[in-house]
Prior knowledge:
This protein is α+β, with helices and mostly antiparallel strands. The protein has one domain. It contains 4 helices and 3 strands; from the N terminus they run βαββααα. A 3-stranded antiparallel beta sheet has the order 1-3-2. Strand 2 and strand 3 form a beta hairpin. It is rod-shaped, with a radius of gyration of 24 Å. The mean pLDDT is about 85.
Amino acid sequence: MSIAVFKPLLTAAGEGEKVWDKLVQRVIDEAELAEHTAAGWLTDANEALTAADLAQTEQDNAALQAQIDAATQKLDGRTKAGREAKAAAEQSTGDQA
């Protein structure tokens, strides 16, 4: 008997056939099911869609956090304490040379 298994597109690495722009699907024999589920394939399309949405959210959050960190670092350089820390770091580098 054949079974359809699903995996989020972000984690699929070119495996399977793209469906719904978020998942890949592969049709396998029932004997291969244990091997595929161990590799992260899901038999329920709804669970796979939820996993795909979660993976996309985590990726978006990581990108936003990187932007926040860059902005915070830039802002810190504009404060008096930030300028003093930068001057101290430059002075200690100059002392070592």
